[in-house]
């Protein structure tokens, strides 16, 4: 299953622009889910992390196969792992173009998988994530504050570097929060799955106890009933 159009609004970027996005999706058994990270340029670094947080079948494993391919027409595999619970990829891209990422659940016959993933494209010429101030806006801010350099005895480049470091640290904190959210989602799904299993087997045991109790009462009554088969058999013996 290819899903390019549905992710384009979330993954669109411009030259010298960093971006990061994360999603949680459900992939059906015997199916795959592919999308493209568009307009990636050479020398940009792409980071990809994923984690399988849940599976629909009671005996299903929380694993998935992941492939990352270079732009067409070559479409060479640059990352490929088979049936892993989690994983990560981080490399500097060598070619310009649209990189394809596929989450493959075809090896699972019955179990649907819930997968969390995060994609980050980092440009060395622009370390600002698009969740923050655009480069043009930053340049405009620098231009408006040129006269204050002598007042504060501090260069605009120093201020920009300090702000840049703060934003990078905030980006790392945001990433770790996403990872913690994925872990919490996985643990929640695991607890719910265990609760469903406990409830199912509790009902089975309760039904068996009721069946055994009913059978015992019925058999005892049959021993004392005059017209019952068991009563006649015990008298013959």
What can you see in these coordinates?
The chain has 5 helices and 8 strands; from the N terminus they run H-E-E-E-E-E-E-E-E-H-H-H-H. By secondary structure, it is an alpha+beta fold. The radius of gyration is 30 Å and the shape is elongated.
The main β sheet shows up as:
4 strands, antiparallel
Fraction of residues in helix = 40-55%
Note the overall shape: elongated
For this structure, the quaternary state is single chain
Rounded mean pLDDT is 77
* CA radius of gyration: 30 Å
Report how far the terminal alpha carbons are from each other.
Answer: 72 Å
Q: Taking strands numbered 1, 2, ... along the chain, how are they ordered across the largest sheet?
A: 1-8-3-6
Total count of strands: 8
Q: How many helix segments?
A: 5
The fraction of residues in strands falls at: 25-35%
The sequence of SSEs as H and E is HEEEEEEEEHHHH
What structural class do helix, strand and pairing data support? alpha+beta
Uncertain stretches of 5 or more adjacent residues: 4-16, 128-133
Name the descriptors.
alpha+beta, elongated, 4-stranded antiparallel beta sheet, 237 residues, 40% helix
List the helices and strands and how they pair.
Elements: H1 8-11, E1 19-27, E2 32-40, E3 45-55, E4 64-69, E5 77-84, E6 86-92, E7 97-104, E8 113-122, H2 135-144, H3 149-152, H4 156-224, H5 229-236
Antiparallel strand pairs: 1-8, 2-7, 3-6, 3-8, 4-5, 4-7
Summarize the structure.
By secondary structure, this protein is an alpha+beta fold.
């Amino acid at each position: 299953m290819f899903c390019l159009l549905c992710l384009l609004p979330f993954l669109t970027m411009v030259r010298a622009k960093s971006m990061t996005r994360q999603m949680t999706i459900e992939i059906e058994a015997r199916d795959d889910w592919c999308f493209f990270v568009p307009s990636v340029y050479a020398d940009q670094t792409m980071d990809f992390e994923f984690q399988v947080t849940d599976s629909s079948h009671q005996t299903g494993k929380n694993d998935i196969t992941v492939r990352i391919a270079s732009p067409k027409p070559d479409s060479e595999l640059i990352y490929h792992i088979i049936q892993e619970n989690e994983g990560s990829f981080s490399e500097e891209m060598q070619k310009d173009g649209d990189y394809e990422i596929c989450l493959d659940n075809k090896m699972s016959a019955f179990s649907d998988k819930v997968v969390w993933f995060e994609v980050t494209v980092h440009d060395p010429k622009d370390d600002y994530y698009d969740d923050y101030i655009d480069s043009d806006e930053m340049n405009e801010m620098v231009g408006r504050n040129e006269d204050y350099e002598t007042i504060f005895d501090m260069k605009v480049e120093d201020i920009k570097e300090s702000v840049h470091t703060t934003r990078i640290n905030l980006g790392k904190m945001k990433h770790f929060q996403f990872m913690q959210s994925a872990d919490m989602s996985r643990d929640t799904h695991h607890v719910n799955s265990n609760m469903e299993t406990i409830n199912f087997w509790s009902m089975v045991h309760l039904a068996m106890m009721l069946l055994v109790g009913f059978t015992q009462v019925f058999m005892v009554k049959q021993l004392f009933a005059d017209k019952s088969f068991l009563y006649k058999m015990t008298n013959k013996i």
